[in-house]
Amino acid sequence: MLSRRAFVLRQPDAASRLLDRAPRTNGAILLLKSLEGLRYRFWSPAVARVGRKARALLAG
């Protein structure tokens, strides 16, 4: 579900919860990198939070 950008944009709170449960594998790292750019969506704070969370998970 997280790989579908439309899902993340429509359901950012659910996507954020799914990010907490995502395994840290190579596929998940690629997914996090694709979601990281959403942190600049300042007109949608919930979507921006998903992007910031993805960036934090990549860093940590």
Note down, in words, how this protein is organized:
The chain is mainly alpha-helical and 60 residues long. The protein has one domain. Helix content is 70%, strand content 0%. It has helices at 5-10, 12-21, 26-36, 45-59. The longest helix has 15 residues, at 45-59. 18% of the residues are buried.
Provide a concise account of the structure shown.
By secondary structure, the protein is an all-alpha fold.
- When the domains are counted, the total is 1
Give the SSE order as H and E letters: HHHH
Structural class: mainly alpha
Distance between the termini: 23 Å
Q: Count of helices?
A: 4
Q: Which geometry do the CA atoms define?
A: globular
Portion in helices: over 70%
Please outline the major beta sheet: none
Beta-strand portion reads under 5%
List keywords for this structure.
60 residues, single chain, 4 helices, mainly alpha, globular
What does the secondary structure layout of this molecule look like, with pairings?
Blueprint: H1 5-10, H2 12-21, H3 26-36, H4 45-59
Helix pairs in contact: 2-4, 3-4
